[in-house]
């Protein structure tokens, strides 16, 4: 008995020595540091100081330094995280993100809006185990539908950042011009068209319509004019679309859907009649806030404070209102696919701390800070799920890039009641049925060259006829001549992978 106890203590001592040695020899951040391993993500016990380098799109928000300082202050003595936030202009972010990943630059977190290719290339760390150990709050504020639908081959490689289970979309209208012209509130798409023609006739110093690019004026519009058709573009591949929730991939050359072509033809008529902006290919919805458009389109329900404020400054007395084709009683399907993600590169030396930090962000008080700024200065609490942004010092945070979730995100209480209702509707996964594509992620690597060539051809030939600049039949013919082979190859590969995915689900 005494001999056995001696052997026990000897083994225990050797175990401690071995554990310490292994902890000191972690390879490339994949073996967790011992102090981080002992820490609990939910308790935030004190850890050694670490600086996390994070890639963000766009420009830093106003008052970013103040918000960043407050975040670091809250983490001092617990997570002990400092933030090295690198903001890259939207025009360059895709290219520079790929350069950073391919050159193994020392980022710890990277925003990505389309991570499939980087996942396929093995550039992002699988997160299931790390979130299982250090991310209870990451999981708690996201629905099971969202978490499952954004896995790839059963694994989660990036935290999905989303508040909506459909992509909101709104026409924004100059309310003051509508009222001046004696037009009643817009209630249908035809009434909107009529209003734009009246603006052209009566208010010639303003452009009637500047949509925000092909996303809004193309397949999105065609699908919204007939929701039962379930029309949708296939990822970012011009010329490919789905319909009827039948699991088939279609192309506009072989199957020019009448509803889609009719929408394109109407866009061309608007352009010919001088209703749609002459420079529609290059102008975006930022022109509306400058007072240069009577109608534009936004990915929101309602009108955000920054747009309202900018418009009122640009045009004293101007007012804006929203009109959407969405209704809360619509029976729509959803893929539950996120539009933004935050990922941990495999080269990060701080993988555990990066996930612990994301977990910290996904707690109510911390999320409020990153999304809305300093409470009492930039915003006020307006009740459960609502906030009131400061008119004088609003904080236009970027929660979509590192924390977005529907359970903590607040809705602007100053929006009209019907708009608040629409926002609540789109954030409830139970209001939608799963689309047949739910959970499917396309790996573009087998057709990477064809996809790149298709993107280039799309910019040159597809975008002009979608935006109404060229006749849709003539434009489609030119696009077919330039891109038919690439469209067919990408279509075949998407269909092949989708068929395999659907077959596996049936097993």
UniProtKB/TrEMBL annotation:
Swiss-Prot/TrEMBL keywords: Signal
Signal sequence coordinates: 1-23
Domain DUF3502: 437-503
Residue ranges the record marks as coiled coil: none
Keyword Signal attributed: yes
InterPro entries registered for this protein in UniProt: Bact_solute-bd_prot1, DUF3502
A Pfam family recorded for this sequence: DUF3502
The protein's name in its UniProt record: DUF3502 domain-containing protein
Species for this entry: Cohnella zeiphila
């Amino acid at each position: 008995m005494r001999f056995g106890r001696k052997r026990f203590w000897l083994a225990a001592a050797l175990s401690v020595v071995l554990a310490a040695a292994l902890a000191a020899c972690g390879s490339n951040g994949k073996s967790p540091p011992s102090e981080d391993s002992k820490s609990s993500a939910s308790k935030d016990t004190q850890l050694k100081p670490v600086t996390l380098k994070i890639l963000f799109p766009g420009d830093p928000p106003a008052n970013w330094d103040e918000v960043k300082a407050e975040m670091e202050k809250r983490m001092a003595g617990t997570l002990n995280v400092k933030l090295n936030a690198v903001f890259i202009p939207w025009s360059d972010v895709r290219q520079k993100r790929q350069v950073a990943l391919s050159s193994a630059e020392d980022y710890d977190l990277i925003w990505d809006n389309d991570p499939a290719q980087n996942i396929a290339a093995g550039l992002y760390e699988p997160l299931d185990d790390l979130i299982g150990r250090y991310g209870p709050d990451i999981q708690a504020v996201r629905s099971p539908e969202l978490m499952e639908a954004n896995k790839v081959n059963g694994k989660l490689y990036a935290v999905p950042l989303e508040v909506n289970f459909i992509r909101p979309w709104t026409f924004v209208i100059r309310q003051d011009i509508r009222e001046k012209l004696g037009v009643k509130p817009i209630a249908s798409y035809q009434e909107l068209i009529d209003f734009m023609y009246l603006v052209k006739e009566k208010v010639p110093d303003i452009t009637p319509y500047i949509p925000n690019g092909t996303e809004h004026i193309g397949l999105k519009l065609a699908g919204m004019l007939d929701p039962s058709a379930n029309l949708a573009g296939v990822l970012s591949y011009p010329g490919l679309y789905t319909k009827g929730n039948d699991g088939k991939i279609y192309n506009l050359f072989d199957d020019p859907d009448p509803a889609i072509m009719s929408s394109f033809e109407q866009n061309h008529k608007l352009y010919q009649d001088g209703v749609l902006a002459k420079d529609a290919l290059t102008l975006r919805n930022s022109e509306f806030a400058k007072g240069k458009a009577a109608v534009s389109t936004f990915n929101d329900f309602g009108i955000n404070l920054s747009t309202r404020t900018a418009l009122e400054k640009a045009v004293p007395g101007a007012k804006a209102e929203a009109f959407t084709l969405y209704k809360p009683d619509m029976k729509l399907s959803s893929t539950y696919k996120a539009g933004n993600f935050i990922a941990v590169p495999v080269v990060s030396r701080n993988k555990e701390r990066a996930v612990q930090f994301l977990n910290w962000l996904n707690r109510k008080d911390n999320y409020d800070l990153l999304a809305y700024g300093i409470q009492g200065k930039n915003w006020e609490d307006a009740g459960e799920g609502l906030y009131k942004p400061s008119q004088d010092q609003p904080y236009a945070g970027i929660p979509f890039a590192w924390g977005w979730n529907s359970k903590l995100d607040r809705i602007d209480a100053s929006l009209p009641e019907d708009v608040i209702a629409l926002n609540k509707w789109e954030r409830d996964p139970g209001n939608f049925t799963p689309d047949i594509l739910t959970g499917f992620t396309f790996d573009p690597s087998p057709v990477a060259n064809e996809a790149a060539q298709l993107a280039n051809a799309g910019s040159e030939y597809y975008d002009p006829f979608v935006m109404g600049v060229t006749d849709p039949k003539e434009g489609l013919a030119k696009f077919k001549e330039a891109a038919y082979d690439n469209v067919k190859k990408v279509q075949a590969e998407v269909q092949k992978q989708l068929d395999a995915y659907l077959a596996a689900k049936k097993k």
